[in-house]
Amino acid sequence: MKNYLTQIEPGYDVFVHDGDVKVGAVRAVNGRELTVYVENAGDFVVPRTAVIEVVEGKAVLDCGKLDLKLRRAIGHAHDSEDPAARSGAPAAEEAD
User: Fold this and answer.
1) pTM of this prediction?
2) Domain range summary for the chain, segments of one domain joined by +
3) 22, 50, 62, 89: which has the highest count of C-beta atoms within 10 A?
C-alpha cells in the first residue's frame, strides 16, 4: 500500500472519489491520519487508509472508508452557498 501521508501537506484540497467538488481542506498530517476541515462542520480525523490518491495539491478520499458523521458533513459542506453558484447557473439577480 502506498503511503500517501508522506505526500499530503496542510492546505491541500480534499475531494471524495465520486465527486468533483472540493469538500474540505487538509489542516494537519501526522502519524497514520490527517485532519480535514469541512465547511460548516469543523475538523475531522481521517485514517490514512481512506486516502486513495494524491494529485497536484489534492487529496482524494474513499467515501466508503469514512465514518458516518464525516460523510454527513461532506454532504452538507456547501449548504450555505447559493445553489445557482454551485450549478453554474446565473444567480437570481443576474437572471432578470
Assistant:
1) 0.73
2) 4-79
3) 50
